Amino acid sequence: MWYLCVFYHRLLDYRKPEVESLAHLFGAFEDEQNGDVPSQLQWKLPIHHHPDSPFHFVNLPSEQVARSIANRSILVKGMYELWGEGGSYEELKDSVLSYPDERKLPYLEAGSTFKITVDSFGKVMSLNEQKELIQGLAYIPFKGQVKLKNPDHNFWLIEIDNYGRNNGLPPIVQRRIFFGREVGGADRKLIPTYQLKSRTYLGPTAMDAEMAFLMANQALATSGKLIYDPFVGTGSILVGAAHFGALTMGADIDIRVVRDGRGPNCNVWSNFEQYGLPMPVGLLRADNNRPPWRSGLKEIFDAIICDPPYGVRAGGRKSGGRKLLKGAVEPYVVPDDKRTDHIPSTAPYSLVECVHDLLDLAAKMLAMRGRLVFFYPVLRDDDCAETHFPEHPCFKLISSSEQILSSRYSRVLLTMVKVGAYTKEIAEAARLKHLEFRENHVKWLQDGNLHSAVFSPIDAQLPEAGDSKFIKDPKPKYRGKYV
Amino acid sequence: MRLLTHNMLSSNIKGVEKGFPLRIEAEKVVEKPVEMNADFLRKMFEKVEWKAFVEASRSMGYAQLPEEVDSGMLESDEFLSRFHHALLELHLEEGALVCPETGRRFPVNKGIPNMLLHEDEV
Q1: Which residues form the Ribosomal RNA large subunit methyltransferase K/L-like methyltransferase domain (chain A) (predicted)?
Q2: How large is the ipTM?
Q3: Is CB count within 10 Å lower at the N or C end of chain B?
């Protein structure tokens, strides 16, 4: 059945993938036996609407599924069973009257409570205007009682018009009015509850609450699942997954972040305690480049969610000293009496090698159909044709969502599903690649060094006559991928 | 560090053939209750290396796990609760994990094992 899905106008690229993932989670694709290929939902745009519009129609198997998706989501403002639509209030009336009675009458019964909300996009309507519109709906036989707080049924009258440009929304060509019964919507109160502003233990790259929930939704986090973050830091991503009931595990190469925090009451554990969430099942200090897992271990995690170090604001580290890997010194043996408190030296970890190791870890340790959800930084180069995302034979990329961070670079949330088993051939190829990275340690640090690309001064060559500001790519006049 | 974590770890020092299971030197063991989730336990049962798990549990002071198991035992609430207790409720707060081949100690402090390898082990 087709539902009207109204999104919040933010994080545009993340909205549909979230609904697709939650559709998987709530069994929208149970009937289809498509094997490896994840199924997709059918979407339609209302007439005259731009793809960035908050309004979309989506086909879902049942109201139960629609409600579950909407209530668990972060970006769906409301999911509605559409009773009518039109370009004018007369057209709307005709449309509502022709909608089958058996779909309407059960929600209009005496003894139930209801409320009608008037929402206009791109313009503010006065209370009087709203009241008039509500009274104009008298042709619908409402028999219930009006109740403004927590009614049984919530009806929405939504008007979108061409209110001119610069109102913060994508352009609408013609007026459209919708009337529908609300089936569910995001619980946005989660955001202030979990916001980083009030988090006990923070780090410079702690994931913001809204994004952590989006990542947990992409990973299908639920009770009974084990979710791993190999770059756990302060645990901000795991907090999101734990909220949805998953059991979590994390590792980090920096022992101070994981073990010590900033004191006995300010560490990763206290972050979970703050929200009454179950503690992570395990936290360890480990190097993703030299993981401590036993060789027979595989397919143990249901999902891996992480934000690897891009090398821009926080650089990654791996084992081995800088000089050691460059070959400037011989491997040295730590004398026995100094072993206990020895802090092993680490070397810079290029993004390419880091992602290679992450994919290798995920290919081995994720259960089949498990999800790998991670951020990948990209330079916003106009000349650059297609962005090449990392690939791996065990994985299928099912979504990529861009979030612009600055004029120089963005980060893209990649969601991959494990579709192939980790074979001996794949293990061998990974081992060889790992050795290749070791041999060419210096080369990998120089190529693809994101830090310098992001922080280098703007090119001295300015565009030609008449234009003293440097040219930016023409931004659409509404808030789009910037948030 | 819980026994679930311990069951996943091995000493991956260069040249070591058999780094699993790590021997536990327990200095401080704490019990922390955790809500039981039967689905999770059943999934983990398939992944756990049982012999190493029983041995590790003993070194943490809990000797109530059966030596031999089969998946039929998952039906028993008694077994599930013992499995749950050993897997998730026993914590090694202070101590060390010792490589069975080289004797190298991986310290465990404040419940966090330090599995980072030294320069000559890499």
Answers
A1: 198-320
A2: 0.94
A3: C
